[in-house]
Structures are given as structure tokens and as C-alpha cells.
Specification:
The complex is a heterodimer of chains A (293) and B (469). Chain A has 293 residues and is mainly beta. Chain A is built from three helices and 18 strands. In chain B, a hairpin with a 2-residue loop joins strand 1 (120-125) and strand 2. The termini of chain B are close together. The chains are: A mainly beta (293), B alpha/beta (469).
């Protein structure tokens, strides 16, 4: 049994940057995986250590508000199956390991939202062995206070014509520290595969620390891989315009942060969950519909 | 059916000639205190430098090999000859250079380049500079361009050397920086006084002829406020079966509002381990511009670093890496934004073919005080077959909310759309593909003086075959 939870960059780099990996202790006893079956939407309340196996054909929404917990999730999508996983993290000291195996023409959609957690480490490995397998990820985070957020996402594409698309939207506030390592790994034989990854981070306070490591590994000629990352401040002209309309600066900052995360929240596709997430973001009017049902 | 574009390996016949060494010129192989003392004795080091070498050796012994990057286990440092006694003293008259060394550099085109397009030339053969010359009018403007050993013994520059030598790249930086501190030999010292703008470049050329040897030249350049310099560095070696080692060190000091352009065409033979360290510190309003072409070596670790310490300082890195059979080239750049309103731009291209491995690796760090800074990184990789590898490993570390940082990368094969477009303009497929691959290297060649751009284009001799299947 594992005693340490560790994440690592698939290809280590300069040590002085401190991005090669991270470790956390694991609980002595870890639960056996619960196999989820059935169709339709399943909502899970994760308040302690847990392990799940999610089969194709399911949509699973996890509300993760545990403290000092270790969550293991495995997605198994066989040929032509689809699986959706929504994970809302808002606990403290949570380690999450997510793995997925995608067979021919299988697809997985992952939505992860990280809100207000103090120390969250998330390690995700997607193995796209199947021809024409597809993976999309929409990840949003709001880290504030003294939060530490460590995200590691490794997408291994060995299937021919496999397609991956990763979009990450984040806001860092206060003294929050974040590392996002996103890797697309095109293996030899993945002819016709494509992969795209983008992270956009808004930095709103002077003491934040933002580390981004967008990696592409490529051992196949016939692929197209792109990655992009932007990190920056609030647009001064936009803020000025809104101020000229009588909106206080603090409110403007909040609005812009919520707008950024809104693009991920709207992907959840479940009105009740979306309302819960908006409430976590402090929207008192969250009962109003933000998404067309 | 797709047909592959054929891109030839670099034609190395120009560089693969050699002369036998006299065994009595070689110090024993390995890195020991006795060898370090012997090198120091041979070179007549001042006491501080002798102590510096021995201290560096201690650090070398204690420092582990880098746990990242390409494997270097084929490099046995016990077999490396760290120093080769020169066959002649440093000359300022080309006629006094020994005949075989003269012929070496003539075949490489160095004297012709000096006559036609350079303000000064330095030529290093194995461990020592054998020729250094600078045009009279350049010398009269106060520019100093000489070998580092001469400068270290010149009362006008001795203190300057001691103040700056391995202060930007301390021996504690990494194992091969420590090795360099212990065994360094040769290299250039350039001093450009305040306000002097040198409109034509200086060039140093480094040739490693001896088998199983190391070259450890040290380049120290100080460009004072409001001055301008373009410095070109070239390097080559004939191919042997024994591993060779290049662990040079480049330290660049760029003054306020000064500009230094540092261009390198690296073409070591494919038995070489190129573990070079380059670093620049830039003062307020200054600019460092790196132009880098990496074509040779068996293994390379090369990441020129720019430390932007002054408000408004700027760094640019433009590079191309061509990794062919048997090559594992790990190249890129590091930028440190340490002051407000600094800016940087990295633009790199890489080509991998015939089993070659190319890795782009970068680090852009923005410190708390670097408010208002901007940085953009662009890297593009071209894979020409599926037995090669191309990786990109960029890192951004941002510690202020008042910065705008962007990164974009693309990896892929020759675009069918681009080929189709060019064919719709009347080119046949073979010519269209050739044009695309040639154009891929354009970011570097357009940044070089014409003569060097032509040399670089000659380095990449492209042969194209194929037709629509």
C-alpha cells in the first residue's frame, strides 16, 4: 500500500524552479474502490477518504468537501462509451488521484473546479490507448488566502487519431500559490492525433505565486500539438470603464473573477450543481438561474 | 499515401579534418588536484586564481550530476584531457601562427571573415588562444579585445577580471560550472567603454582538434553604459569515437542603455558533450540579444540566461536547434525579471530527424519587484519522422500580479495546407516542401549578418524528394 502521495512532472527540469513534483503523506488505511454503475447523473458527497471506479455511460458529480482526505477515482471507458466526471473541490488538505483508460472511440469529459481549499494536490493521468479516443478537460480554480494548489495533469496519447483538449481558467488572490503542470504526451504510433492545452490565469494580488508548466512530449511525426499559457493582471481599461459606470473596484474584481470561472461552471450542465458552485463563490442570488435548464 | 520529406543531415566534411597531437603536449587525463596545480603552473596564474581553481575542484567533487536532461553517462571525466599545451604563444600577426593551425582556421574561413566583415578576431585551438587581433581604429576607440589570460596579467584589467570572473556563474551553480572553474583555459575578454558603438562584430572561433580532450574557454564581456557590441562565437571539432567535452562559460555584463548581441553557431562534432553555461546581467534600459544555432554535439545542455536587473531592461533569445541521428540536444533559455518594466521575448525553432532528440527547455521567472514586466515565449518544433523525438518543457514562475506573461508552442509535421497553398502558386510539391523547411530556420538566419546567415544555410543542406501520393 502506498504511504506517500506523490506527483511528478513526466520530464524533470531545472531544480531551482521547484516544479518537478510534490509529496504528501497518505492515510495508513485506504478504502477499497466502490464500483459505480448505472446510467444518468450520480451525485456523490465526498467527506472522507474514498475510492471510486466509474464505468462508461455515466455522469458522476462529486462534491468534495473532505478535510485531510485521499480521493482515488478511476474512469474506465470501453469502446464507444462516454463518461463524464465533475469534481468540485472545496475541502482542506485533499489529495486526489484520477486515472482514466479510454478505448477505441471512447470519450471522457472532465470538469474540475477548485474553490478556497487550503492545500489541494491533484494528480490526473489520462491514458488514451484507443483509436479515435477523445478527452476534454475544463478546469477552473479560485485560490485565495494562503491556499496552495498543486495540479498535475498528464494526458498520454498512444491511440491513432486520438484528440485531447484542455482548457484551464484560474484566479489567484491573497498569498495563494499554485502550480499547474499540464502534459500532452504523444507516443510513437499515435498518427493523426492532436492535442491542445491552454491555461489563462488572472493574478489579482501582489503576493500570489503562479507557476505554470505546459509540456508537450512528442515521439510521433504525424501529430499536431499546441499549448498556450497567459498570466496577467486585470485589464486596466476594462476596470476604468466599469468604474466610470459606478461599480466599486472591489466589486469589479469579484465580477471579473466570477466571469472567468463562469466559463467552466457552465460546462457542468447540471443546474443544481451550478447553483451550489455559485453559492460557494459567494453569489447570494445563486437561486436565480445562471444556466438555462 | 503520404511520402516523407527527406532532409539531409548536416554536411560535416568541412569540419571533419584533424591533425595529430604531440603526446608531450597533453596533460594526463582526469580531474585531480595535481592536474589543476599543473594547469595553474603552466598558465602562470596569479595566486587568487590558483586558489579559485582548487576551491572549484572541491565543489566539483561534492556536486552531483544534473538529475534532469539528456543522459551523460557516456562521458567519462577520468578519460578527458583537460589541458593541452599550446604549440605557439598567442599571436597578433597571422603569419606567426603555426602552419597546421593556420590551415585549420583558413579552411574554416576565419581569416577571410576577418578581412571582410569583422572588427576583430580571436582563434582558440584546443586549450589556448593562438591568435587575437583587433582593427586599429577599434582599438583606438578604447575597445579591448584580447585573451583572458593576457587581460588577467595586465595591470589595467587585472582587478576588473578578478571582480567579474565567475561572479555571474559561480562554481556552485552546477557540476560543470565547478569543473570549468577548476580547469578553464583560453577564451576572450572584451571591454567596450561607455558610449562606444561598435558597428561591425567581433568574433571568437573555438576549435577543438585533440582526441578525447575538453575545451573550457571562458568569455568575459563588459559593455559599459550606452555602448553597443555584436559578438559572434563559432565552434567546431573533427569527429572522433572518443567522447569530447566542451564546458565553456560565458559571462556578459551589459550596462545602462547598452546593447549586446551575442550570436553563436555551434557545430561541434557528434562525439562532443556540449555542457556550456552562458549568462548575462543587464542594467537599466540595457538589452541582451542572443542568437543561437545549435547543430552539432552528441549531447547538449545549453540555456543562455538573462538576468534583467535594471528597470526597463530587455532580453531576446532567438534560436534554432537541428537534432539528427545520434544527437540529443537540450536547448532553450532562462530569463529572470528582477526589476520593474523589464521585458523579454523567446522565439525558438527545432527540427528532429533520423532518431535525433530535440528538447526545448525554458524558465521565465518574474520576481515580486518586477512590476509592469512583460514576457512572451514562442517555440515551434518540426518532426520529420517517427523515430525522432521533440519535447518542450517550459516553466513560468510569476510572483507579482502586475505582469503580463504569455507562452505558446506548437509541434507537428510539415503542414499539408501550406504545401497546398504554395502549389496553388505554381511551385511543385518538392519545391514547396523545401521552401517550408528552409523558411522554418528563418527566425535565426535573418538575425545574423549576411555572411553568417549564408554559413548557417549551408549547414542545413536540404534535399527534398517526394510527390503527392
Amino acid at each position: 500500500m502506498e504511504t506517500k502521495f506523490s506527483t511528478r512532472l513526466p520530464v524533470p527540469t531545472f531544480r531551482f524552479l521547484g516544479v518537478n513534483g510534490t509529496e504528501r503523506p497518505l492515510p495508513a488505511e485506504q478504502p477499497e474502490p466502490e464500483v459505480l454503475s448505472g446510467t444518468g447523473i450520480q451525485r456523490l458527497d465526498v467527506a472522507a477518504d474514498a475510492a471510486f471506479t466509474v464505468a462508461g455511460g455515466q455522469t458522476v458529480i462529486m462534491d468534495i468537501h473532505a478535510e485531510h482526505a485521499y480521493l482515488q477515482t478511476h474512469l474506465q471507458a470501453n469502446a464507444y462509451e462516454k463518461v463524464r466526471l465533475v469534481q468540485i473541490f472545496h475541502g482542506d488538505s485533499v489529495c486526489s488521484r484520477l486515472t482514466a483508460d479510454l478505448a477505441d472511440s471512447a470519450s471522457a469529459e472532465l470538469i474540475q473546479i477548485y474553490l478556497h481549499g487550503t492545500d489541494t494536490v491533484s494528480d490526473t493521468e489520462i491514458r488514451m490507448n484507443g483509436r479515435k479516443s477523445a478527452f476534454t478537460a475544463n478546469i477552473g480554480y479560485l485560490a485565495d488566502g494562503d491556499a496552495q494548489l498543486d495540479l498535475n495533469l498528464n494526458v498520454i496519447q498512444s491511440g491513432k487519431k486520438s484528440v485531447s483538449d484542455i482548457d484551464v481558467q484560474g484566479v489567484l488572490r491573497g498569498r495563494a500559490k499554485k502550480i499547474f503542470r499540464g502534459t500532452i504526451d504523444f507516443q510513437q504510433g499515435a498518427a493523426g492525433a492532436s492535442g491542445a492545452e491552454h491555461e489563462d490565469v488572472l493574478l489579482t494580488d501582489p503576493e500570489v505565486v503562479n507557476k505554470t508548466v505546459p509540456v508537450i512530449l512528442c515521439a510521433e511525426e504525424d501529430v499536431v500539438g499546441t499549448h498556450g499559457a497567459t498570466a496577467g493582471q486585470l485589464d486596466a481599461r476594462g476596470v476604468f470603464y466599469l468604474q466610470s459606470r459606478g461599480i466599486p473596484e472591489a466589486e469589479i474584481r469579484e465580477l471579473i473573477a466570477q466571469t472567468k470561472l463562469g466559463s467552466v461552471i457552465r460546462k457542468i450542465g447540471d443546474a443544481a450543481t451550478e447553483r451550489d458552485v455559485w453559492r460557494l463563490l459567494g453569489r447570494e442570488d445563486a437561486d436565480e438561474p445562471f444556466t438555462e435548464e | 499515401m503520404k511520402q516523407k520529406t527527406q532532409v539531409a543531415d548536416i554536411d560535416r566534411s568541412l569540419y571533419d579534418f584533424r591533425y595529430d597531437e604531440d603526446a608531450s603536449d597533453l596533460l594526463a587525463s582526469g580531474i585531480t588536484p595535481e592536474i589543476i596545480r599543473e594547469i595553474s603552473e603552466e598558465k602562470g596564474d596569479p595566486e587568487w586564481m590558483r586558489q579559485f581553481r582548487l576551491h572549484s575542484l572541491e565543489i566539483f567533487a561534492k556536486t552531483e550530476m544534473p538529475p534532469w536532461g539528456p543522459p551523460i553517462d557516456g562521458l567519462n571525466l577520468d578519460n578527458i584531457v583537460a589541458y593541452i599545451r599550446p604549440k605557439s604563444r598567442m599571436n597578433t600577426d597571422w603569419n606567426n601562427v603555426p602552419e597546421n593551425i593556420k590551415e585549420t582556421f583558413e579552411r574554416l574561413g576565419i581569416p577571410q571573415a576577418e578581412r571582410e566583415s569583422l572588427a576583430g578576431v580571436g582563434a582558440q585551438y584546443d586549450s589556448e588562444l593562438v591568435y587575437h587581433n583587433v582593427r586599429k581604429e577599434v582599438a583606438e576607440s578604447g575597445v579591448v579585445y584580447t585573451d583572458l589570460e593576457s587581460a588577467m596579467h595586465d595591470p589595467r584589467f587585472a582587478e576588473m577580471i578578478q571582480t567579474h570572473f565567475m561572479k555571474l556563474v559561480p562554481p556552485t551553480d552546477h557540476k560543470f560550472a565547478a569543473l570549468h572553474g577548476a580547469v578553464w583555459s583560453g577564451g576572450s575578454f572584451v571591454y567596450v567603454p561607455a558610449g562606444v558603438r561598435l558597428e561591425i562584430p567581433l568574433q571568437s572561433y573555438f576549435r577543438l582538434n585533440a582526441k578525447g580532450a575538453g575545451q573550457f574557454e571562458h568569455t568575459l564581456i563588459i559593455v559599459e553604459d550606452d555602448a553597443y557590441l555584436h559578438f559572434i562565437e563559432g565552434c567546431s571539432a573533427p569527429k572522433y569515437y572518443e567522447a569530447g567535452l566542451h564546458a565553456g562559460c560565458v559571462e556578459l555584463y551589459v550596462g545602462k542603455r547598452a546593447t549586446l548581441r551575442y550570436s553563436t553557431i555551434e557545430n561541434w562534432s557528434k562525439n562532443m558533450y556540449n555542457l556550456n553555461t552562458k549568462r548575462a546581467v543587464v542594467a537599466e534600459g540595457g538589452r541582451i540579444e542572443w542568437v543561437s544555432g545549435s547543430f552539432g554535439s552528441h549531447v547538449s545542455y545549453l540555456y543562455p540566461m538573462s538576468i534583467l536587473n535594471g528597470r526597463g531592461a530587455h532580453a531576446e533569445f532567438t534560436g534554432i536547434t537541428f537534432a539528427g541521428a545520434g544527437q540529443n540536444l537540450d536547448t532553450g533559455a532562462k530569463i529572470v525579471h528582477n526589476a520593474p518594466e523589464t521585458s523579454s521575448h523567446i522565439d525558438t525553432k527545432s527540427i528532429s530527424k533520423s532518431g535525433g532528440i530535440s528538447t526545448f527547455r525554458s524558465a521565465v521567472t518574474v520576481a515580486e519587484q518586477a512590476v509592469g514586466s512583460r514576457s512572451s515565449v514562442s517555440c515551434e518544433s518540426l518532426m520529420l519522422d517517427s523515430i525522432s523525438r521533440s519535447d518542450t518543457v517550459p516553466v513560468m514562475d510569476i510572483r507579482t500580479d502586475q505582469a503580463d506573461i504569455g507562452h505558446e508552442a506548437k509541434i507537428g509535421r510539415i503542414s499539408d495546407d501550406a504545401v497546398f497553398y504554395l502549389m496553388s502558386r505554381g511551385l511543385d510539391e518538392q519545391s514547396a516542401r523545401a521552401m517550408i523547411v528552409s523558411g522554418f530556420a528563418d527566425n535565426v538566419s535573418k538575425e545574423l549578418p549576411l555572411e553568417y546567415a549564408m554559413e548557417m544555410n549551408n549547414l542545413i543542406r536540404l534535399e527534398m524528394t517526394g510527390s503527392a501520393g
